[in-house]
Structures are given as structure tokens and as C-alpha cells.
Amino acid sequence: MSRRKSPSGKTADPTAAVLRWIAGSYATYRSWRDRGREIYLACNGDGRLARARIAAEIRQAVTADAGSTGNEAEDAETPLLEAAAADAPLPSPSRLLYVDWVMVADYALLACREPFAALVQENTRRKEEFRRLWESYVRRRWVTAARKLMRRSPSASTAEILHALQRKHPQVTRANVLEAQRQERAGVPLRRPLKPARPRLFKPYSPQYFLDVTADEAPNPPPEGEK
Description:
This protein is an all-alpha fold. It has 9 helices and no strands. The chain has helices spanning 9-12, 14-22, 26-42, 47-66, 73-76, 101-108, 117-152, 158-166, 174-186.
């Protein structure tokens, strides 16, 4: 009686098969690397949400690719991993339930573990937007303080109000006092300015499985000039 051959490690581990599929070529890897960055930004740096979202997209792509009969020779010309060969098929749809999708998503999001151009640009934008909010808040505080002084001392001159304010707010200018006087004459409601909340800046992605990854030891990095 012939002994049934055991499945190889390549076909027995559905998670490894999906990882090899992602790393099958530089083009595939770059595609998911870039998509991972897009999703990470869209999820506002929420790693848990980003993992769930990119895992869903990869699973959908794997399902579609497993049933396709397209030409795979083009990707095989530039394999990212030696083990990513044609003899390691994708898991069947029924076996996708056994894939560790957290690991797969973690791999796809590794490109977010360090600041990248879009992330840096978004953080710069948030800082600038908050700076403008803060400048407005500070000046409205000065105007409010000036109007309160005017109400306590109706006969005080512009110079006297300015001098009194500068004791506590040295940066107050005559223009701020004039704005306060303008609002008082127009009967603008006196509102206490609300302090703007500082927006949360993006932090690099925190891997779940690949905890020992560093910039110099990233698995399967793309070629120079593609970062």
C-alpha cells in the first residue's frame, strides 16, 4: 500500500502562501506597500483599523487571483523572495479562514513603521493649521480682556487700556485694542474664547509580529530609489 505524501510546508501554511504571493515580485510588493500607506493615512494612524482594512483588501485580491488564469510569468521575472515560486499555490477560498490575516496585514503595513513623505506632509499641515487656530485664539483672548477693561473703566483711553493689558499680555498691540473698541461699539456679544485642541499627529506604525524590524533589517525591502 503506497504511503500518501504529506503536503509540503509551502502548501500546508496558508499564511506563508499569502505572504509569498505579496512578495512574489517587486511590483506586487510596491503595490501593497503603497496601498498600506494610503490605508494607514485614511485610518488616521489607527493600526488596528488599518490592519483590518488592508487584510480585507488582500483577502479579496487573493480570492480573485487564486481563481484567475492570467499570465504569471511577468511577475516571476523579478521575484522578491527566492521562495516565492510558482510551485507554491495560493490557498483555496475554503482555506482562507486559516490565514493569519493579522500577520499578513502587519507585513503589508511595515512600510509605515517609519515616517514616509505623505505622513510627514500631513503632520506638517496639521501643525500649521493648529498654529493658525492658536494665533486666532490668543488674539481673541486679548480682545476679550480689553473689552472687559473698557466696561470696568469706560473713560479709559486707548493708550491706558493698552498699557494695562500689556502688564499681563506683553505682546498685545494697539491694533488689538482698536479691534476691541470696534466690537464694543457694534455690540458684538462678549464670548469667552474656547481653547483649540491640538490635533493628534501621525506616529509611525507599530508592528505586531515583526517587532524586531529595523530600518536596516526590513524584510524584503524594495530596490533603491523606490522608498
